[in-house]
Amino acid sequence: MTPSARVQAAIEILDDILAGAPAEKALTGWARRSRFAGSKDRAAIRDHVFDALRCKRSFAALGGAETGRGLMLGSFRAEGRDPGSVFTGERHAPDPVREGETGHAPRSEPERLDIPDWLWPSFSSSLGSESEPVAKALQCRAPIHLRVNLRKATVPDAIAALARDGIEVARHLACDTALEVTSGARGISQNSAYLDGMVELQDAASQAVVAALNLAPGMRVLDYCAGGGGKTLALAANEGVEVFSHDAAPGRMQDLPVRANRAGVKVTTIETTGIARLAPFDLVLVDAPCSGSGSWRRSPAGKWALTAERLQELTHIQGDILAQAASVVSASGVLAYATCSVLDEENGLVVETFLQDHPDWVEIHRQSWLVSQGTDGFFTSHLTRNRAR
Ligand SMILES: C[S@@+](CC[C@H](N)C(=O)[O-])C[C@H]1O[C@@H](n2cnc3c(N)ncnc32)[C@H](O)[C@@H]1O
To answer: Is position 360 annotated in a ligand binding site?
Structure first.
């Protein structure tokens, strides 16, 4: 496909997404209908679509309309490129730029930084002087990070194995096990280091949340909101730690046995009704459902789908889960709360509400990771009972 045809395809897919289709579904639907497109075409079109979704407000302003065409026009103008070279009207190319499709420069801070107006006060008060750098980082593509599974390889061995298959990486400062892919990223899931369980795809801050837990052999640990099991596997990579995984939607953990097997670790999956029988646990990790605002680079549609009502609902859910999970922590154990959100409402404020409602608990550790520092945005807080100190 020509560069122009790829842009035209992105315009059509963006129109589907703007009409309500989930991004992945719109992309796969287009690929199914367009068998002529090769893997490089599909990858380039995907990049166009996700770049436009990350910058939907500012591109719509620059392109003059919140349509697929407006967003793609805006993307050219944002880069200082003349859209005329691609919007030619030739075969498979978008129509030439029409009079009136002039657009305008973003007129406000949140429009320039691609944050919804309603969220800007909360976003900027949560992040203070980091608001602009974080919002700008959320406009860009996310790096690809790997976690070295220390059960299967040392970090230098994993780096060498990846290099043999043409994947170059650099160590990431956020965590000892974290690597950032610097070239060859597209081959990762077919790579032998990945297939042999030496490395897992996982954001460096997500790894650092687990590394910040003082895990020691003999501990019994419950991952209360395990989801697909990314943190479960990072927990289980610690020798001698017994790991249980739970999720209110057990179907989300369906791939976990296969992933654990590949990683060479043991994980026991439990239903909600089984938790009380196995309690108490030395450590309960609550990686709570949240806005995902720290990972909007990866899932940009979430930035535009979030509403004030949903945010408030999430804070209630987070508080409820934290209270449930606290009841299965041993007397001297730790309750670790985590979100991939950058918003105070979902982070410090949830912890403070919990501590007000549970005066026998205290916070012993709090840490945040900023999107502007090269990871997803993450927050964690470690809580324990007063008498345990
Ligand atoms: C942020 S995701 C977890 C991501 C996962 N820990 C990982 O590292 O890949 C939050 C998870 O919480 C689960 N969840 C929602 N409500 C819950 C509840 N009341 N109890 C336990 N899990 C819940 C969701 O099904 C979702 O899988």
So the answer is: no
